[in-house]
Amino acid sequence: MFAAEIRRRRISGMKSSKWRRHLDEMFVKINGERHYLWRAVDHEGEVLESFVTKTRDKKAALKFLKKAMRKHGRTEVIVTDRLRSYGAALKEIGAAHRQETGRWTNNRAENSHLPFRRLERAMLRFRRMRSLQKFASLHASVYNLLNSERSLHSRSNFKLNRAVALAEWRGLGVA
Q1: Strands (E), 54-162
Q2: 99: which strand partners?
Q3: 2-147 belongs to which homologous superfamily?
Q4: For residues 146 and 168, what is the distance between their CA atoms, to the nearest angstrom?
Q5: pTM score > 0.70 for this model?
């Protein structure tokens, strides 16, 4: 309930076509069966969209791209890894010229998986696809709200931003 409100507030200020989107997928096991968690991350490392599928093909990539573009608008540059499904899906949408791939260009998305993996290990895996989807979207919203890049700000600015984030969190009636 509160995650939707957080997401709505953050997305309203994020719709800019000048930003870069980093797209990546990761393997997640649900009851011993391999599933894929597709994630879209902006240029600052905030998770924009999470989507769970059973397959890692053009159809799944197309569905994920359409969902991300509908919510967050189009962007000038889409950074992906070399998975051919992205190229095929972007070609179908008509945005193949916006795709950028390279050896280390998608590190922003790869590094966004780390906090999720830590929590996944603590939870001892997932049982259903639906619970994974709910957890991924909720985790992204809360992580985006409370996480600040400490190395990019002075201590006083970090404390101020952290206080504002906690005040917003408490204003939602959660804590």
Answers
A1: 77-80, 99-101
A2: 78
A3: Ribonuclease H-like superfamily/Ribonuclease H (3.30.420.10)
A4: 10
A5: no
